[in-house]
Amino acid sequence: MLSGAAAVWPLAGRAHQKAMPVIGYLGNVAPGPNAQFLAAFRQGLSDTGFVEGQNIAIEYRWAEGHYDRWSALAADLVGHKVDLIVAGGGSDAALAAKSATSTIPIVFTGAGDPVEDGLVNNLARPGGNLTGFSNLGRETLRKRLELLAELVPQARVNALLVNPTHSNAERVIPEVQAVARAKSVQLAILKAATEREIDAAFASLAQLQAGAIMIIGDPFLNSRREQLVMLAARHAVPAIYAYREFADSGGLISYGAEQTDVLRQAGIYVGKILNGAKPADLPVQQPTKFELVINLKTAKALGLTVPQSLLARADEVID
Fold first, then answer.
1. What value does the mean pLDDT take over residues 132-145?
2. What is the model's pLDDT at position 133?
3. Coil, strand or helix: which one is 105?
4. Within this chain, do residues 168 and 69 fall inside the same structural domain, yes or no?
5. Shared-domain flag, residues 253 and 277
């Protein structure tokens, strides 16, 4: 009897053990051409001993650029009793995850101002169940407008394309307007939350006499990279973007945080939490690597001469 009980007990014990941990990944669009970001995230997980399909599982949910889906997608992940949620769609996705659960750890990426957005108490000691990575979006927006003014000094009117459904849109506009005034440049605000509205925004540039356009680094607009680059070329307007992937795809110039590094660090944070760390004790990180990328081929097509001072500061020049 004793030997029989001993044989059965380990099996019963294993039956009650929890299966491998499950991460819920709340993202904007399925990887596609941005697969390197997800690869970087998996690399961060691997650095802490976790490999998808071996000792960890990932449930993916994609909003496909529709911010009104965040809440339902976050609730769905909570309903699946995931062990941790990665909110990879900026502040809006993180806020939806925070509303869905106060107990499941959440690691966010791409948040503009996590304190002002109400995600954490402070950056050094977040408190609660959230931590993650800010993209310093508003600071880099000001820098982009300065770069655009340096690249296209003759432009007396610049356009700013924003997605009005994004939570930070209305807050960043006054800051960019202040920089434009300091540069003696008029700023035309264009709003687009659909592909058709993006087309309409670019079609209005000629009437506005806009000499250049800046694209806000919004998850929806980022997901329409090919459309934005194509429209900028079709309307022969200099454009600056948030991420180097735009310049790689033929965009004129980009300036922003190196996203692959951010996603790798996010994977490391997830691994630390799964290994016992508390989100409340992990400080919110700000990007340390920024990239200025200039596409000289596009500049030549637009008839632009890029100042040597700008080329000297570029991290990469695409010929």
1. 83
2. 95
3. coil
4. no
5. no
* Tokens 């990180």 found at: 285
Q: Which has the higher per-residue pLDDT, 111 or 69?
A: 69
pLDDT for 175 beyond 90: no
Cβ neighbors of 262 (< 8 A, separation 6 or more) are 109, 110, 133, 135, 287
**93, 144: one domain:** no
Is 154 found in the same domain as 12?
A: no
- The kind and range of the H/E element at 58 are strand 57-62
The Cα–Cα gap between 298 and 5 comes to 75
Residue numbers of the domain that contains 80: 2-134+258-288
Which of 42-56, 138-152, 272-286 shows the lowest per-residue confidence on average (mean pLDDT)? 138-152
Quote the tokens at residue 34. 């941005």
Same domain, 44 and 168: no
pTM of the predicted structure, to 2 decimals: 0.85
Read off the pLDDT of residues 296-311 as tens digits, 9 standing for 90 and up: 999 999 999 999 999 9
Same domain, residue pair 22 and 81 = yes
Q: Structural domain tally of the chain?
A: 2
Cα–Cα distance measured from residue 250 to residue 231, given in angstroms and rounded to the nearest whole number: 11
Asked if residues 249 and 229 have their Cβ atoms less than 8 Å apart, the reply is yes
**E-assigned strand segments in 82-179:** 84-87, 106-111, 130-134, 157-162
52 and 119 assigned to the same domain = yes
